[in-house]
């Protein structure tokens, strides 16, 4: 969540909006388009966590459908909201490091 170049100032305004530039080093963070890859990677990661857990719970306990709904939808949303800004920061950092605009 910090500038990938200097590590000092925040890279985001709010939850996911990338700042136009770093207040500390002046890196033009707004020119990096890290918009499409982070949600894809987040869905991929959350799916690889939730689906095996879902299958394990179904295999061992066979709960009713409403139990699945109450378990997996909130867990999926929580994990998505936790991972998305971190993955977006990692993608932004990789783009800055590799010089991909």
From TrEMBL:
<dbReference type="Pfam" id="PF06170">
    <property type="entry name" value="DUF983"/>
</dbReference>
<feature type="transmembrane region" description="Helical">
    <location>
        <begin position="69"/>
        <end position="87"/>
    </location>
</feature>
<dbReference type="InterPro" id="IPR009325">
    <property type="entry name" value="DUF983"/>
</dbReference>
<feature type="transmembrane region" description="Helical">
    <location>
        <begin position="39"/>
        <end position="57"/>
    </location>
</feature>
<keyword id="KW-0472">Membrane</keyword>
<keyword id="KW-0812">Transmembrane</keyword>
<keyword id="KW-1133">Transmembrane helix</keyword>
<protein>
    <recommendedName>
        <fullName>DUF983 domain-containing protein</fullName>
    </recommendedName>
</protein>
């Amino acid at each position: 969540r910090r500038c990938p170049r200097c590590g000092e100032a925040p890279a985001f305004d709010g939850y996911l909006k990338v700042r136009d530039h770093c207040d500390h080093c002046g890196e033009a963070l707004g020119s990096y388009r890290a918009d499409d890859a982070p949600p894809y990677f987040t869905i991929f990661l959350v799916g690889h966590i939730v689906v095996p857990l879902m299958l394990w719970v179904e295999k061992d306990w066979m709960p009713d459908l409403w139990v699945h709904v109450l378990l997996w939808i909130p867990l999926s949303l929580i994990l998505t909201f936790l991972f998305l800004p971190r993955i977006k920061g990692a993608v932004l950092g990789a783009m800055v490091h590799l010089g991909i605009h």
